Amino acid sequence: MKRRTLLGAAAGATTAGLLPTLSRPALAQGNARVLRFVPEGNLANPDPIWTTTTIARNHGAMIWDMLYGLDDRFEPQPQMVAGHELSDDRLTWRFTLRDGLFFHDGEKVRAIDCITSIQRWARRRPLGQTLLARTEEMKALDDNRFEIRLNKPYSLMTRAFADSCFIMPERIAKTDSFQQIGEYVGSGPFRFLRDEWVAGSKAIYARFDKYVPRQEKPSFLAGGKVAHFDRVEWIVMPDSATAAGALQNGEVDWLQRPDFDLLGMLRGMRNVKVVVNDKVGVLAMMALNHIQPPFDNPKLLRAILSAVKQEDFMAAAVGAEPELFHVPAGVFTPGLPMASDAGMEVLTRTRDIAKARQMVQESGYKGEKVLLMSPSDYPVQAAHAQVAADLFKQLGLNVEFASMDWGTLVQRRSSKEPPDKGGWTAFTTTYEGLTVADPSSNVPLRGNGAQGWFGWPTSPRLEALREEWLDAPDTAEQKRIAAEMQRVAFEEVPFMPLGQLYYPTAHRAELLDIVPASFPIFWNVRRA
């Protein structure tokens, strides 16, 4: 072995009566050690492996630690490991855990916990699926070391482990990855108080006293994770104006994602700050069901794509904040290395609704129902769904607009049945920019059919190009392959990109040292 990595509106009014537990400002109640936070939505399911929702990931990052974490340059850095060794043939990796790692039940973190957690995680994540395909054996060498032997080099190993690969106790990680876990014993800086969790209302966390942070400055998901608050309370407030009023009155400390149309008012509030910590943004998109009519017809999908005007989708969501979105956006995150102009004329040429309507007719569309799901508690995605519904109607599609809360949508999107039997045809969503930045983790771009993301497109061309990208010798070749993948995607339409947008966040001015990130991070933040 050769050492390769060293071990090292109503908003202005009081919310009293609406929120009896928040009837007075938090500081006035003597809760300086309590952080009250309004998340983007409801934590319907707290298993971040079983579900791909960002809120479950945010929850996961609080209570479980990872072997590696991305720093602010998006490079993986050791987190739970002290470091690793890599053989000269790049086929054998050995990892050593750092000292002082404990689960929330007081048990020591062992190598077998890591192996079992990796195996469960890997079945649900593209980077992990590639790892499994290239693995000959994973085994624990002792309680502090484990080894992975490959049949083919995998240069993205540490990057994969930084992709929400949360380390759980072996008994929990043995749960089938397509079933929900029943315990939430973590390994990170906060404990999940499951007995106080009320889905649709609140989720509560407490600082884990035995967590030993790395002795490094925090940098995105890497470095030292120091918890300054004894308790973090996620308070679900579906009405954004009510949440803004609670922030103004000091009843909550932090709004993850205020509505865009409230930003002007929030900026005018005393002791409130509005900031954009996310410099990468999210990619808005429309997911399409490729296994049920009528969207199993590529000609119909191309006809619809020819009429998509990304500016309309962005303006509907962002309104008078044009600096918070970017168009055009392809299938990779604009501004990052794999983004390109390849095939972008599909999105940038002048929209011709009449021509697109003719293309729909010529595609063989027979008037089948298009069931479009819209998340009622996510304003941005709901606005995008409204624009999509209007576009579908203009094109002559038989549209049924189905509004539901995000938790219900997440459950329904897993159905492969026809719409009239509980299935669906399309829904709008967003994906974090880092996740769809390149082919390795761009889940909506996969063409692996039944094993893929919701919509289940099958594309041997996309899968072959993805494999080429993973084995590319340099960045130039990766960019060439990514450009070709974008051209193929505009032909086969696994999903429809709708634009890139940046979410602002709002918090009380006394909150300091919030780690800049695309989602809320609760270590390092403190109250002045």
From TrEMBL:
Name of the protein in its database record: ABC transporter substrate-binding protein
Similarity field: Belongs to the bacterial solute-binding protein 5 family.
Compartmental location: Periplasm
Keywords: Signal
Lineage of the species this protein comes from: Bacteria, Pseudomonadati, Pseudomonadota, Alphaproteobacteria, Acetobacterales
Main localization of the protein described in the UniProt heading: periplasm
Family annotation (InterPro entries): Peptide/Ni-bd, SBP_5, SBP_5_dom, TAT_signal
All copies of domain Solute-binding protein family, residue ranges: 75-417
